[in-house]
Amino acid sequence: MDRREVAESEVVERSEGQLAANWMLQHPKYRELMNLDVGDSAQVYAAFLVYLDLKEVRQWREVTSRGSSELQLVFLEGREREGERAQVILPLPAHRTLSHRWVRSLFREKPGEGLAAAMLLCVVASDSSLVYQRLCPGLLTPDPPVGIEDQGRRQHRKRRLR
Question: With the C-alpha atoms ordered 53, 94, 133, 89, is the resulting torsion angle positive or negative?
Answer without folding.
Answer: negative
